[in-house]
Amino acid sequence: MVPCRDSQPRLPKDFAAGFSLMELLVSVAIIALLMSAVFPFLFQSQKKYQDNLVVSEANQSARAALEVMSQEIGQAGFNPNFTSAKISSAAVVVNPSPQCLTLSDINQINPGDWVSVDTGPNYELVQVLSTSTVSGTPCSSPNQIQAVFLMSHNGSTTPFPVITYKMPYGSGILQTTGTSNDQRLEFFGDINQDGIIRYMVYSLSPAVPAASVSINGTTYTLYSLYRSMTVVPFTNLPTPSTYSPPPNNAASPLVTSVLYNTTNRSGPTGQPIFAYPNQVVIGVVPNQITVVGTVAVTLSVAVSPKSLESGQSQWFTMATRIRPLDLQAAITVNNAGGAIYLPPLPKSLPMTFPSNYYP
Questions:
Q1: What is the pLDDT of residues 13-66, one digit of tens each?
Q2: Which of 18, 64, 293, 355 is geometrically suited to a Cys-Cys bond with 278, CB 3.0 to 4.6 A?
Q3: Count of alpha carbons within 13 Å of 309, Cβ hemisphere only?
Q4: Pairing outcome for strands 274-284 and 218-231
Q5: pTM above the 0.85 mark?
Q6: Domain boundaries, the chain
Q7: pLDDT beyond 70 at 242
Q8: Pairing of strands 91-92, 153-154
């Protein structure tokens, strides 16, 4: 047998040669150049994404707070009707002087409200001057209202009804000295639509620790916008200097990092936190009140931390205009000649700001 001349296996032609060192170095250099261009772009995109995420979260928080404010301010001045019928089994004789009448209950009856008493020929409409829950009232027995009765009512024979005849509080947004202004809003009404009058305060308090931001050469301080809700106290109300405990609930932050310059009375947009563009004076002298037709709210909120992309402070603004329908209704009642039926400002309002107003 003749031996094979070449006993070593032959490699396919495609594997006969490989890359040279120079070719590998050139490839690495090209890839490095490409990546040097791609990585900064990816890094910048990541910072942009993180900025957008931070702004979005802050925006959602402020938007939720603005929705709450819109709902609550929209209820300003709402004076709820009775949720349960009231009757009296007392006997009343005509008297031009105020006298006290005992009812089945006086829930949701406040001084200044109008109620209809009895039916048929003895029907009359009376204004509640006081109730037995008000400090200093002459009505000493429970569940009594004080009013002037010009008709006789014999409830001892047949109990007669006392029915609501409520009108909105035209002064639902307080506009007296020391109350609502460019950075504070005070209002009251049946805010939760549960038959209870509540007193609301939105007010700025400096952020802790103190912080400020310079925007276009103007320094803006960072504040927190606080919210306080308190049931209007008619029971045993002392003088303001002796509140114990204070009637205001401790406030809680509603919006943080609000930008505001108290000297300029504006935020970065040039607008105040609260503005009252539409105001109408109604009533008859000396019982005139100012009715606020519109509340403009402008919140400029700083985003923390600073922009990763630009390294500059960033902020956004949210604004809305709110028209409380009950205040509009009060104007309508006044213009129709019914100003006498609009209840006055409840006793104890406006409240003072006790030391624990802010937590």
A1: 555 556 777 877 878 888 877 777 766 766 666 656 555 555 566 677 788 889
A2: 293
A3: 15
A4: unpaired
A5: no
A6: 49-79+169-341, 86-164
A7: no
A8: antiparallel
